[in-house]
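Board notes (copied after class):
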Amino acid sequence: MRRLLAWPAAAAAPDWNDLLGRFAAADRAALEQALFARPAADAAAWTLTLSPSGGTTGPLQLRGEPALDPDGQPQWHCLALASALTTPAPAEEPATVLAPAAAAPAVEADPQRLSVVTRLAGAAARQELELLYQPQLDVAGGSVRAVEALLRWHHPQLGQVAPRAFVPWAEECGLIIELGRWVLQQACRQARRWRDLGVLQVPIAVNVSAVQLQAPDFVAQVEQALTAAGVPAQALELELTETTLLQESEAVRQNLAACRRLGVHIALDDFGTGQTNLARLHRLPLDKLKLDPSFIRNLCIDRGAQAIVRSMVALGHQLGLAVVAEGVEQAQQLVLLDEARCDAYQGHHATPALSADALTRQVQQTHA
């Protein structure tokens, strides 16, 4: 909870209903049941004990009494929550971190983060989400080998919100499951459209997080998206990062293996920036390595970067994997990648991420 909230102890805390929206669905349901499922007439004090995973000397107790809103429903505001989370209370006096609504001002701490998280729920239903597409091109011949789907969020008030500003928080509060399901469905539908047009009959890659991969129904989500769109499993590629591998669990391994058995391609994104164990890399059901842009950025001026890229390409090939260089911006970088026998590349040198219609027109003009 401390990591999720990241609020200074001196700051006023937000409305409790907004706070609930930042938790994963299961945790939110448990808290809502504990806080709001009591009859309105029950004004007795209650205590809810949470056992932290680490960093405190004992369980955190939330204690308070319900206050009623104009409709007779219990309503809570969070009071001094950050202080209670960062400073464990003495064992003989549990920390009182909840108080009736009338006792706490409705002042938000860190309003930008909170507004992003609370408005993200339901963004897909409100048609605020969009997928852009960036092709991965063959280094030697220039043909399209795959297309990566990139999520964008356009909010009426917030404007265009960068993925780095909402994806980490979506993972923390569980909304990444909703977003990920939408991305899978849209990517598969676009693959169907391109096949119907006779263009881009290549895999569409979507990014998946550790939270998604640990979901019990993740494989079912993949199968449903493929079946609904009427495309083969080979039309989909799942991209996971090295950070995801560091959180690898039995559920992640089983889900990846099940997707691979379906025929879905698996790619390791941002390779070279994490701490992937090579023995684990060998055991993973991978089809592709994607080299992080940080290695490509200095490729033309740094012989060390050139040696590293050659080594990573050779390692990928020895493991039977295709290797893709991300972040290619210059023609000379492409020449060096060709010399290193890199298979494919992705970046603004070829094209930035485009809408589906724009990429379709570009491909049709290229092959006209």
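Comment from the instructor: The chain has two domains: 2-109, 117-366. The longest strand covers residues 144-155.
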